[in-house]
Amino acid sequence: xxxxxxxxxQRVERITVKLVPTSNERSFKHIPSTFSPARRMYNWRxxxxxxxxxxxxxxxxxxxxxxIFVDVTSTKKVRDGLRKVVQEFVKAxxxxxxxxxxxxxxxxxxxxxxxxxxxxxxxxxxxxGVRLEN
Length: 134
Description:
Elements: H1 4-7, E1 12-21, E2 35-36, E3 41-42, E4 45-47, E5 50-59, E6 64-71, H2 82-96, E7 101-106, E8 110-111, H3 124-128
Antiparallel strand pairs: 1-6, 1-7, 1-8, 2-3, 4-5, 5-6
């Protein structure tokens, strides 16, 4: 039996989110990511509004940039409300999981292809030397 993801064409939008530390001492411990060390690839997760994937793009002492890929075929509110859905998602995650970070800005939704390859060698975690949030 084919899964839902295989039977329906996937339409994905990417929004780049910029987060900043809330203190000078790098109080954040976990970089937002849906990377699976066991599978060595980024995985889809489900939120009340649809499926998403988090891929870190830049990490520095002054900001964290994360690409949020949203499967708009699984999302109830498409395109017009997508930024609002992502903003609500980010705020909810900051309150619970992304302690030490605050929302700086949200990019515009753009059609994109999410990462699908398995990382054979260095992963972003190995390169950065930090544990990314699962």
